[in-house]
Amino acid sequence: MSQTNYDYDLTILGGGSGGLTAARVAASLGARVLLIDKERLGGDCLYTGCVPSKSLIHVAQIVHQANNAARLGLTTHGIDVDMAHINTYIQGVIKRVYEAEHIYTDDVTVKFGSVSFQSPTALLLDSERITSRSTIIVTGSHPVIPQIAGLADLGYLTNEDVFQLTRLPASLLIVGGGPIGVELGQALARLGVRITIIQGPERILPREDPAVSAAITDVLESEGVTVVTKARAQNVERSGAKKRLIVKRGDQFIAFEADELLLAVGRQPNVDGLGLDKLGIACTAQGIQVNSYLQTTRKNIFALGDVIGGYLFTHVAAYQAGVAVRNALLPVSKKKVDYRVLPWCTFTDPEAARVGLTYEEAQQQHRQVRAVTLPWADIDRAQTEGATTGFIQLVLAGKKEEIVGAHMVGTHAGELLGEIALAMQHHLTISDMLATIHPYPTLTTGLQQAVFEAQLSGRQGHTNRRIVSTMLRLLK
Ligand SMILES: Cc1cc2nc3c(=O)[nH]c(=O)nc-3n(C[C@H](O)[C@H](O)[C@H](O)COP(=O)(O)OP(=O)(O)OC[C@H]3O[C@@H](n4cnc5c(N)ncnc54)[C@H](O)[C@@H]3O)c2cc1C
Ligand SMILES: NC(=O)c1ccc[n+]([C@@H]2O[C@H](COP(=O)([O-])OP(=O)(O)OC[C@H]3O[C@@H](n4cnc5c(N)ncnc54)[C@H](O)[C@@H]3O)[C@@H](O)[C@H]2O)c1
């Protein structure tokens, strides 16, 4: 079949973060693009993920600030939390973000329905047969529901319904201490819910540097959140009006009771009904298998975003979309994905922000590795805002002290990631960052202070001191 006989150059399955970006990029390059979603455009990030969670976090932050305003000399008389109203605010944000995303489908054919593969180049959308030279699968993920006895009977919340609440439970047990459990745990606690987080591993946010997990644990506990680690949820049962969760911790079984239960124990790929088996496309519980060009085991079928597992972030799906579109439309000059500089942020308050390697990872990959840490309290802007908890840790490697990783806890720490990511992307050294004038008083001056301290305590600082003292001796 020649290229012109295909209905489309590229068909994208899934109209969420990754799918919308892929559609926009491909259409802007002049390809004939079809975008198919099973129900609506926007995906998890818009309706049940980033957008509603960050809106809720924003409201919770205001409540927290108001409740702590007395230390600034401001008298408040208690805050009434009206969840129905907050819900209206959240839905309003979703609507406005959705409207802004509309440009993503300019020059793209959009269809909705149930789609499955008939062959590597043919799809069935309900009863319509569609042919496409290449296809990108970007159907996202859904929450893992763990095998906990009694769960189905008793009921539970996940990210798919928690943002619909118009009344808050008085108490909530959250199973899972990853980003979802921790972000929502703090936000809901600030809105007045008694929160207990049950986390399997020995610390919350186990993908972060241990110092980051420890700092966020301290913050949560200081705000009244109970954090139970090394604890596995075993079974649930009703206890009067409450839900009782039995947790195994070492040899002990401990019972926790609350009004509601929220599950946040990870994700699994949305692949049901796509007919991947028919084409022999390899897929595990973590996701569709792809090579570094984001090709599945069928080379004209690509996959990206949550459905391939790994780094489950909106910005990663968007990055991968650019790579997959290029590889689908220009197979003669394929590009590999590169995750060397991959920033992410957990939106607790203070935020936990990370890019690149931890100190331990850097030691395995580089020579002459060291880490420097600047307390967040040393940043003047942090002092003016009365938000001094946290630190900036930079991981440096090589003779020239290139930044290979950064780990931060601090209010708006995520906003500093862009600068470090750019520096890392272009292999800048601490001297390059130090030589760049930063506006005062912003939090970014903290980065400059951190690289300044790094230079003072490093080889360059030692050399500078030697040169200057030699010069001064000669001038005597
Ligand atoms: C509570 C929460 C908070 C989060 N916060 C952040 C954050 O702050 N920052 C961040 O970077 N990431 C965050 N994430 C992760 C982020 O939402 C995902 O990584 C991102 O949405 C993945 O994009 P995607 O395109 O792969 O999937 P999605 O955006 O979910 O899109 C998948 C699309 O595929 C469609 N679909 C599903 N099955 C089919 C099918 N069979 N046929 C056709 N279409 C189908 C769906 O309807 C959906 O529109 C959060 C996630 C959650 C749950
Ligand atoms: N700010 C952000 O960028 C952001 C925010 C929220 C979610 N996300 C994305 O969404 C994804 C999913 O988040 P998540 O928090 O659901 O998953 P996760 O996999 O990151 O964390 C879930 C945690 O629950 C633990 N767990 C699993 N089963 C358990 C059990 N039975 N009992 C106790 N603990 C158990 C796991 O060990 C893990 O530490 C993340 O990978 C993240 O990339 C990102």
Task: Label this structure with key terms.
Enolase-like, domain 1; 15 helices; seven-stranded mixed sheet; NADP; FAD/NAD(P)-binding domain; binds nicotinamide-adenine-dinucleotide; oxidoreductase activity, acting on a sulfur group of donors, NAD(P) as acceptor; globular; binds flavin-adenine dinucleotide
What does this protein structure show overall?
The chain is of the alpha/beta class and 476 residues long. It folds into three domains: 3-142 and 268-333, FAD/NAD(P)-binding domain (3-Layer(bba) Sandwich); 151-265, FAD/NAD(P)-binding domain; 343-463, Enolase-like, domain 1 (2-Layer Sandwich). The chain has helices spanning 17-28, 43-47, 50-67, 83-100, 151-154, 179-190, 210-222, 276-279, 314-329, 359-365, 380-384, 417-425, 430-434, 445-457, 459-475; strands at residues 8-13, 33-37, 109-112, 115-119, 122-125, 128-137, 141-143, 171-175, 194-198, 226-228, 232-239, 242-249, 252-258, 260-263, 267-269, 301-303, 343-346, 351-356, 370-375, 391-397, 402-410. The strands form five sheets. Strands 1, 2, 3, 4, 5, 6 and 16 form a seven-stranded mixed sheet that branches. The chain has a five-stranded antiparallel sheet with strand order 17-18-21-20-19, with helices on both faces. α1 (17-28) packs parallel to α9 (314-329), α3 packs across α4 (83-100) and α14 packs across α15 (459-475). The longest helix is centred in the N-terminal third of the chain and has 18 residues, at 50-67. The radius of gyration is 25 Å and the shape is globular. The termini are far apart. Flavin-adenine dinucleotide binds next to α1, β2, α2, α3 and α9. Nicotinamide-adenine-dinucleotide binds at residues 146, 175-181, 183, 198-201, 206, 232-233, 264-267, 312-313, 344-347. Belongs to the class-I pyridine nucleotide-disulfide oxidoreductase family. Residues 8-321 form the FAD/NAD(P)-binding domain. InterPro entries: FAD/NAD-bd_sf (IPR036188), FAD/NAD-binding_dom (IPR023753), FAD/NAD-linked_Rdtase_dimer_sf (IPR016156), Pyr_nuc-diS_OxRdtase (IPR001100), Pyr_nucl-diS_OxRdtase_dimer (IPR004099), Pyr_OxRdtase_I_AS (IPR012999). Its cofactor is FAD. Keywords: Disulfide bond, FAD, Flavoprotein, NAD, NADP, Nucleotide-binding, Oxidoreductase, Redox-active center.
